[in-house]
């Protein structure tokens, strides 16, 4: 971590790590970041944030690195990012020389960004439904379960169309940031009572994502997926 607002560089087992993730284990967005870091095979230092009951995200010190109080926060040298879309794109652009997760091909990149926007837009209703069920606070969403089911139907339709073309992921040609961003919303839906029985393609897709090299799980991702 850079000197200044982000704090000092972290040393783990005698090595200096430039990537530092301010993390809360129960945050779906933090899991998105950890998942991509795992898939990229990157070493990083983790700084736990006491959200509940500590309320650390409201502290002046935390607001210096995350003005809106959002998690996670990624510190990469002098770069400090506190919005998950920026974090995912930054990691892909700076650490993925093969252009796997954010394709270099224009058509695939456009499709990736479209489904990334969906995963971090309408599909986040599943995150809100989970937050409501677990913490009694779903943010600005109204009727998040209704909106989540609507988004899951859109996702299921996309995966059905992809399967007809022999494609197991959201974008042709392999996994992308879109899959990384969508996975927590789908896999953690069980926390608000959605077992995905009505969404068989989505359920199969979660298993495909889980089989990727470097995949990391998190509390709440059921073994039956």
Strand-residue fraction?
A: 5-15%
Radius of gyration (CA) equals 17 Å
Order of helices and strands: EEEHEHEEHHHHHH
- So, CATH architecture of the largest domain? Up-down Bundle
Q: What oligomeric state do these chains adopt?
A: single chain
* Helix share bin: 40-55%
Note the gap between the termini.
36 Å
DSSP strand count: 6
> Major beta sheet, specifics?
4 strands, mixed
Taken from the alpha-carbon principal axes, the silhouette is: globular
Q: Helix count?
A: 8
The fold-level CATH name of the largest domain is: Glutathione S-transferase Yfyf (Class Pi), Chain A, domain 2
Residue stretches low in confidence (pLDDT < 50, at least 5 long) are 1-14
Structural class: alpha+beta
Structural domain tally: 2
Q: Quick one: CATH class of the largest domain?
A: Mainly Alpha
Question: Strand order across the biggest sheet?
Answer: 4-3-5-6
